[in-house]
């Protein structure tokens, strides 16, 4: 009761009707599925195909949580949400978690009654232009008309950058990323700005993607990751460590193809992650094989990255910052022990 009162008071201070919703794990187990908020459609992150199947880096985080909690990565109910809808849907309990290319900022973490659990993709804001516009740098865009998605950090970053550089622009806002792409393609704006990963995803959806280019400048830090409600630490820990298991599996050299063997005859670290040694699962309120289920059914971070946005995908994005910390990137998991 004290926790609920404290959270309710916090919600009142913030002007929000947020209360603690402990027991998400029990709700998920009773429902038999994880309710996961995703984008309305963004290649490589969360997109539904013509058969109704969802795929993407963010989708795989949802699948990892389902594998950990229910033993089956397919037991996910996907809820498509616009950028403006996403936080309200999570706050209200409409979804159990949000995995929707969402930037972790202080304001979002400290004033919405939400907790970011980690980073599944390090990104940064960039700009896409038509090649026939004749520009090679964002600094050539003074006076440009810019297509932008409403309810995102992109709007604020754009205003900050142009103001700091003494430049002017006219913004045209849209509710979804597909609408921004359509606006750009129809010529309503000179430039489309978003996270660079989104720009590459949106470019392949153009009728003539070869006519568009992404400018070299990156003007912001955009650490993207899953989000849960405050007030349920047990669920927060489950989602946090489900993401960590994917990242740690790559570091330890465990893939979906080798998880079963590693659980039996691997190193002590591998066995500890996969549940054949230690009691990590019980500390999370899960079965001993929670992480084994994740890696076997979803894969490690390298597998998730490469099939969705990397070499095995149409986007062909290099690992860059998203490489493991010991291979030139900053992707890093806390120790699972």
Automatic annotation (TrEMBL):
Keywords: Signal, Transport. The lineage of its organism: Bacteria, Pseudomonadati, Pseudomonadota, Gammaproteobacteria, Oceanospirillales. Residues 1-22 form the signal peptide. The keyword Transmembrane does not apply. Belongs to the bacterial solute-binding protein 3 family. It comes from the Bacteria. InterPro entries: Bact_solute-bind_prot3 (IPR051455), SBP_3_CS (IPR018313), Solute-binding_3/MltF_N (IPR001638). Residues 33-255 form the Solute-binding protein family 3/N-terminal domain. This is Amino acid ABC transporter substrate-binding protein.
């Amino acid at each position: 009761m004290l926790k609920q009162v404290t959270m309710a008071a916090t919600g009142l201070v913030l002007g929000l009707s947020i209360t603690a919703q402990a027991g998400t794990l029990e709700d998920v187990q009773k429902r038999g599925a994880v309710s996961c908020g995703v984008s309305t459609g963004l290649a490589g992150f969360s997109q539904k195909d013509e058969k109704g199947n969802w795929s993407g880096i963010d989708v795989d985080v949802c699948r990892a949580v389902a594998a950990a909690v229910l033993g089956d990565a397919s037991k996910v109910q996907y809820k498509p949400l616009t950028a403006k809808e996403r936080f309200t849907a999570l706050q209200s309990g409409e979804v159990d978690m949000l995995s929707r290319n969402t930037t972790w900022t202080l304001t979002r973490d400290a004033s919405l009654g939400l907790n970011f659990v980690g980073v599944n993709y390090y990104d940064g804001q960039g700009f896409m232009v038509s090649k026939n516009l004749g520009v090679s740098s964002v600094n050539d865009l003074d006076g440009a008309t810019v297509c932008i998605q409403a309810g995102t950090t992109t709007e604020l970053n754009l205003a900050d950058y142009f103001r700091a550089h003494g430049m002017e622009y006219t913004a045209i806002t849209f509710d979804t990323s597909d609408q921004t792409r359509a606006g750009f393609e129809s010529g309503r704006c000179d430039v489309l700005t978003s996270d660079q990963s989104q720009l590459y995803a949106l470019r392949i959806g153009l009728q003539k993607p070869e006519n568009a280019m992404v400018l070299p400048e990156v003007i912001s830090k955009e650490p993207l990751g899953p989000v849960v409600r405050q007030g349920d630490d047990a669920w927060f820990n489950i989602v946090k460590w489900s993401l960590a298991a994917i990242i740690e599996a790559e570091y330890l050299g465990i893939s979906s193809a080798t998880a079963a063997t590693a659980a039996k005859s691997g190193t002590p670290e591998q066995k500890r992650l996969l549940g054949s040694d230690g009691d990590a699962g019980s500390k999370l309120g899960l079965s001993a094989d929670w992480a084994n289920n994740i890696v076997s059914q979803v894969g490690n971070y390298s597998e998730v990255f490469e099939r969705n946005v990397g070499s095995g995908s149409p986007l062909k994005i290099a690992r860059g910052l998203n490489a493991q910390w010991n291979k030139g990137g900053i992707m890093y998991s806390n120790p699972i022990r």
